[in-house]
Amino acid sequence: MTAPRQLDDRRDESEPASGDYHVAGVVVHARIESLRDVVRALETLPGAQVHGESADGKLVLTLEAHSARHIAERLSAVQALPDVIGVALVYQQHETVDSQNEDNLNETDSSRFP
């Protein structure tokens, strides 16, 4: 696999700020001869970031959104792209902004350590 691509933040600003954060790890299998086109198409999706690729046409992708519905819609959009053979959801996580803030506070709280 190649090194992760550095992409700008493609989070969809039209989504309401619900306080929820969803992230999905996805493997996309694309036709080798069209791999560059598929990567370019993926890079235009809101909240999508390509992290690596293999010589046999597999891509590592993350999707970020404010709801599970938006993640599901983006998975469907990826599957519908020309030259995409298959999409596999490998990981999905949901957190609220409050729980993330609490985790960050706990990580910096030195009183927790003896």
Summarize the structure.
By secondary structure, the protein is α+β, with helices and mostly antiparallel strands. It has three helices and four strands.
The helicity comes to 25-40%
The CATH class name of the domain at 20-93 reads: Alpha Beta
Shape: elongated
Structural class: alpha+beta
Number of helices: 3
- The number of E-state strands comes to 4
Pick out the low-confidence regions: 1-13
Could you tell me how far the N terminus lies from the C terminus, measured between alpha carbons in angstroms?
A: 42 Å
What is the correct CATH architecture of the domain at 20-93? 2-Layer Sandwich
Q: Biggest sheet, strands in spatial order?
A: 2-3-1-4
Q: Using the CA coordinates, give the radius of gyration.
A: 16 Å
What amount of the residues lies in strands?
25-35%
Report the biggest beta sheet as strand number plus sense, adding barrel if it closes.
4 strands, antiparallel
Overview of the molecule:
There is one protein chain. By secondary structure, the chain is an alpha+beta fold. It has a domain at 20-93: Alpha-Beta Plaits, CATH 3.30.70.920. It has helices spanning 35-43, 68-80, 97-108; strands spanning 20-30, 48-53, 58-65, 84-96. Interacts with the cytoplasmic NapA precursor. Belongs to the NapD family.
State the main characteristics:
114 residues, alpha+beta, Alpha-Beta Plaits, four-stranded antiparallel sheet, disordered N terminus
Question: What is the topology?
Answer:
Blueprint: E1 20-30, H1 35-43, E2 48-53, E3 58-65, H2 68-80, E4 84-96, H3 97-108
Biased composition (Basic and acidic residues): 1-14
Keywords: Chaperone, Cytoplasm
GO molecular function, one term: signal sequence binding
